[in-house]
Amino acid sequence: MKKEDILASCIDEIKAGKATVEDCLAKYPGFGDELRPLLELATGFKEPTVTPSLEYKQSLRNRLLEIMAPPVNAGRKRPGMFDFHELLAAVKKLNFALTAAITILLVIVIAGGTTVYASRRSLPDDALYPVKIGAENIQLVFTLNRDARTRLHLTLAQRRLDEMVTQSDLGRDLNVSSLKAVTTEIDAALKEIVEAPPQDILSLLSQFSTSTLNQQATLGQLLEAAPEAIHLALEQTIGATWRGNLISQMAYVNPDLLESSPSVLDEKIRMGYFELEGILVSAEGGVWNIGGLVLENVNSSIGVPPTGHRVDIEGLVQGDRIFISKIDREDGTDNEISIEGVFGGSSPDGTIWYVGGISIGMPEDVVPPPEGNQLELLGVIQDGIIAITRMETEAGEEGKFAIRGILVAVNRAENTITISIAGNEILINIDEVLIKGDGEVVTWFDLESLAEKQKDIQVDGLYMKDDLIFAKVLYIDIDREQSEPEAEDNERNGDDEPDGDGEHNGDDEDEDEDDEDDEPDGDDEHDDD
Amino acid sequence: MTAYSHESEESLVKRAIQKDSTAFAHLYDIYMDKVYRHVYYRVPTRADAEDITQEVFIKAWRAITKYRQTGTSFGAWLIAIARNSITDFHKARKKTISLGDTEIISQHIEAEPQAMTEISLDNEKMRKAVLKLKENKREVILLRFFEGWSYREISESLHKSEGSIRIIQYRALTDLRQILRRGDITG
């Protein structure tokens, strides 16, 4: 065996922890004098742990996904166009729905196109409203392209809401059936996205996210003026749009979530949303240990952060799977964990609590809060049981949820902020906003500082006025240390498009290395000086 | 390890070649750190490393249909793109690659003090000694001991046999020892 191979083999064994320098020297006694200094040198390198920040990784990942998403309408037929084969396939599938639609179509043809046209502005309870709904059903039946159908469902949901706003402005009663139609349409849109081809999913999720945010704002506007009798139905619909928005945001980051066929009708979605902070002790094979709390079946399309550091993660528990949608690396080394989510009850003996869908071992003497309350637990996990250092709970406000996005711009003159949600930038007026920031006084500077760093922000109490979205409350988490300019230097917004058509493509590996001492048989050279 | 590790890299690459963005995103998750680390040690600042890493993945996505699984691993292909991008970067800065390479680690430390702890070897002497090595030896030391590459990966990337890489490693360590013993590590 050559000395170079012996050295390489020894380095491998030492790095793998299978041998020590002394073991190797004993194994190859004839090379001892030569090997020892080289091995000591090689094993003395402190392997650096250079890694990009998680924020950068996430931001670049999102940027890539945007670039990879095909442009809207690219390569697609115009809405309403279809070929004969697609029509035949649809006919085979649709049976009853098609028969009904064709019947309505015939009625409409007999009644005349002008009737359909006249029905366009009709409102629920108007005589022509059934014609309008019938025409929409026909449009749905003949919209064979999944992408177009998704967008049509979202358009119809918004149309139902616009009708309700008009009814409200006219002083008419609002129909609960219209609210149900909104929920049905957005759930149908989500089901289409679940079945969509991978290359279409991100752009559809992006549209879905924006639509559900707008719907939430419109519903907030309706809630302001609606009579008490309809508040419950409105809040339930706001809940559905909130769940839709949450699903789209999370699936935008982690599309695997769609494998669980999430539905806006599933009220348990809210119960499965959690935020967890602690030291990532290990992460192997979908089993993550965070500060002693073991999470199983973890799915993270963002990747896995390095172990041994504090992380702040967000995720959604769906069935027996945990989908991670955000990972931030945090400073600090203390072994306390913090978990926040809706309290979903406890085991019969009270020793296991479910917070945001995560199971936590509890001491026996702790009194649980009411189910459905928002709960934040801080403590240290010892032998699978949390020793609580702080517990905060507040009543859950069904239907009045915060939406989270990345704060990307602040405009003092216009009293607006821009947040980015699932790849879309949304302008929100904060003219009348209440800012909550962990009890601290919040200034415009704080907001601008957060925008510079593209930090997460929560907006709550959305409503629509003059075609603008307003928010009643902003929740911001001010990290004073991170507000210092020198504390963070690696935030990149990645806006600038590189000239990706450079002359070097991936398949032209043509570096001209200096090969002068490539050949191992050549003379060794010492030309360092 | 990621949750989608049940799907082989080969399968992900095949899907990515068909312009499956989800598969490419998974490949990004697998290789991002490695590409970034490779770029980081060869450009002056973290910001440059971030820009070039972004460029690498965008170029890779645009050229993915040209990639064929013909012996070169997907990781080596990405690194080849990274090396081209780094070359372009230095050309744009009107510096030769060898001069640029020699100065890179120093520039990191001057530009970003916090990088010192990340990039430092056991001590300042060692760092300067590595900078004194000839380019191909320095490259092997960087890849093997800083970036944690296997001999096979280095061999693929530098287009040399694994045996040659082990020999260069031996010589690089011998040179490094002599440089340290001579104490010729100024500048």
Number of helices of chain B: 10
Oligomer: heterodimer
Question: How would you characterize the largest beta sheet of chain B?
Answer: none
What structural class should be given to the helix and strand makeup of chain A? Answer: alpha+beta
Total strands of chain A: the figure is: 19
Q: Could you list the spans of chain B in which at least 5 consecutive residues all have pLDDT below 50?
A: 1-5, 95-103, 108-123
3D shape of chain B: globular
Structural descriptors:
heterodimer, A: 529 residues, alpha+beta, 11-stranded mixed sheet, 8-stranded mixed sheet, 14 helices, 19 strands, 38% helix, disordered C terminus, B: 187 residues, mainly alpha, 10 helices, globular
Explain briefly what this protein structure is:
The complex is a heterodimer of chains A (529) and B (187). Helix content of chain A is 38%, strand content 22%. Chain A is of the alpha+beta class.
Structural summary, described in words:
The complex is a heterodimer of chains A (529) and B (187). In chain A, helix 1 (3-15) crosses helix 3 and helix 6 crosses helix 7. Chain A is elongated and about 100 Å long. In chain A, a hairpin with a 2-residue loop joins strand 17 (463-465) and strand 18 (468-470). With 529 residues, chain A is α+β, with helices and mostly antiparallel strands. Chain A has 14 helices and 19 strands. Chain A starts with a helix and ends in a 46-residue tail after the last helix. In chain A, the strands form two sheets. In chain A, strands 1, 2, 3, 4, 5, 6, 7, 8, 9, 10 and 11 form an eleven-stranded mixed beta sheet that branches. In chain B, helix 1 (9-17) crosses helix 2 (21-40). Chain B is mostly helical and 187 residues long. Chain B contains ten helices and no strands. Chain B is globular. At the A-B interface, helix 1, helix 3, helix 4, helix 11 and strand 4 of A face helix 2, helix 3, helix 4, helix 8 and helix 10 of B.
